[in-house]
């Protein structure tokens, strides 16, 4: 039975990913900050993880205990400056945004690279955002930190694809769509189910040639 580890599995897109992988017969490990508050999540295991804490990553690594991870899905994210333009975004919000959205996914990838390399699917997925596309700057002028953090994530994920190619490990950066979650809001375009179903299909069909790509939830490419 293949195994997937999904960060930010407590709600929104992560929770929907948990459900689709469970339905497909996978062993699903979800993480969030407070597993007691996520009892409705249908994962096989719900483990605590504060993604910005090295100690918390180490504790998760110990709990996983060398088990192969077919997919490591770095999904947890924050959008702290959604309603804030450049003038209002200070060091604290920039730092937290980069810690959660850009640095943590890479620290987790480094921590679990051996587990992924030891699996059959050998895939590291990142929930990115089209807001990180420099080639398509449509949208509001708010969110300098968020948009920059996803651009940084894309760079690191693309570098990781190069680095891990000799080990057969693929990476992919995915735009989930504008999704009805706590982050996306009720008036967003699509449900978390539509997003998660689409992204799962993209990841299921991911080829070696696509490793390091920045793709929409329906498989289309995004400009960097
Ligand atoms: N919704 C959209 O329209 C949209 C569009 C583009 C990209 N995205 C991306 O999609 C991903 C999921 O977003 P969502 O819409 O599902 O958001 P959400 O409903 O706000 O859920 C965010 C998830 O991230 C986790 N998380 C946040 N900070 C964390 C931290 N410091 N440590 C551990 N976990 C943390 C949360 O866990 P807790 O329960 O522990 O807080 C929660 O599970 C994010 O990377 C986001 O940037 C979303």
Characterization of the model:
- This protein has 224 residues and is of the alpha/beta class.
- The chain has a single domain (3-216), classed as 3-Layer(aba) Sandwich (Rossmann fold), CATH 3.40.50.
- Helix content is 38%, strand content 15%.
- The chain contains 5 helices and 7 strands; from the N terminus they run βαββαβαβαβαβ.
- The chain has helices at residues 12-23, 54-64, 91-117, 144-164, 192-204, and strands at 3-6, 27-32, 45-48, 71-74, 123-127, 170-175, 213-216.
- Strands 3-2-1-4-5-6-7 form a 7-stranded parallel sheet, with helices on both faces.
- β4, α3 and β5 form a beta-alpha-beta unit.
- α2 packs parallel to α3 (91-117) and α3 packs parallel to α4 (144-164).
- It is globular, with a radius of gyration of 16 Å.
- The mean pLDDT is 97.
- NADP nicotinamide-adenine-dinucleotide phosphate is lined by residues 8, 10-14, 32-34, 49-52, 75-79, 100, 127, 129, 176, 178-179, 181-184, 188.
- The site of NADP nicotinamide-adenine-dinucleotide phosphate has 29 residues, from α1.
The overall strand count is 7
Largest sheet: 7 strands, parallel
Provide the structure class. Answer: alpha/beta
Mean pLDDT, all residues: 97
Keywords:
single chain; 224 residues; alpha/beta; Rossmann fold; 38% helix; 15% strand
Concise overview:
It is built from five helices and seven strands.
SSE topology:
Layout: E1 3-6, H1 12-23, E2 27-32, E3 45-48, H2 54-64, E4 71-74, H3 91-117, E5 123-127, H4 144-164, E6 170-175, H5 192-204, E7 213-216
Parallel strand pairs: 1-2, 1-4, 2-3, 4-5, 5-6, 6-7
NADP nicotinamide-adenine-dinucleotide phosphate (NAP) binds at residues 8, 10-14, 32-34, 49-52, 75-79, 100, 127, 129, 176, 178-179, 181-184, 188.
